[in-house]
Design a protein that fits this description.
Elements: H1 3-7, E1 13-14, E2 18-21, H2 28-35, H3 38-41, H4 52-67, E3 74-78, E4 84-94, E5 99-106, H5 115-129, E6 135-141, H6 145-153, E7 157-168, E8 171-181
């Protein structure tokens, strides 16, 4: 299996309250609305979007990934409002070892309501069924309680803490690593 086998045409996925779909240029305002929130970017590796051009650059980057059949994010569209409220994706995929890592971001207005747990569960299902993964993992900065809860509610288990694992935004950070293994 190759990345292109799955990501040559990113499939649309659906949860109870969301549609996971390709991002397009019409999503720029919605993405800017949450990416310009410093609380949303607080624990991410990307910087807060200070101007709409930052978001346009991100969207063009994503569109290039779609064109080149690379790992790329799904936009999370709220079924009720039609607005894009976040992204989720496989940020890396080790095909030879049948494992991949999930990443995500969500509008603060939707925190604590189970939206991201729904989406992560759908990505886990997709990973085991369509990508033939054996192991799916996710990481978060130690202080990111919300992200830890998403992983736990999605069936992942804490494996440990990686000390000063990343240097991000001027500081070293301890990272929690979670995983889920395909049921045999």
């Amino acid at each position: 299996m190759k990345i292109e086998d799955i990501f040559s045409d990113l499939p649309t996925l659906e949860t109870e309250r969301t549609i996971l779909r390709k991002i397009d240029l019409e999503d720029i305002q919605d993405i800017y609305a949450y990416c310009s929130d410093e609380e949303v970017s607080k624990y991410t590796t990307w910087e807060v979007h200070r101007k709409i051009e930052d978001t346009k650059g991100f969207v063009n980057y994503v569109l290039g990934k779609y064109t080149n059949c690379q790992l790329s994010p799904w936009g999370i569209q709220d079924k009720n409002t039609g607005k894009l409220i976040g992204t989720c994706d496989y940020v890396n995929w080790d095909i030879d070892n049948y494992k991949a890592e999930i990443g995500y971001a969500l509008s603060r207005k939707h925190w604590g309501q189970g939206y991201m747990t729904e989406c992560v569960k759908k990505l886990i299902e997709f990973g085991f069924v369509s990508m033939n993964l054996n192991r799916i993992e996710a990481k978060c900065i130690l202080d990111n309680i919300g992200s830890s809860r998403v992983m736990e509610k999605s069936g992942m288990r804490l494996e440990g803490i990686l000390k000063e694992y990343i240097f991000n935004k001027g500081n070293f950070h301890d990272i929690k690593i979670y995983s889920i293994i395909r049921e045999k």
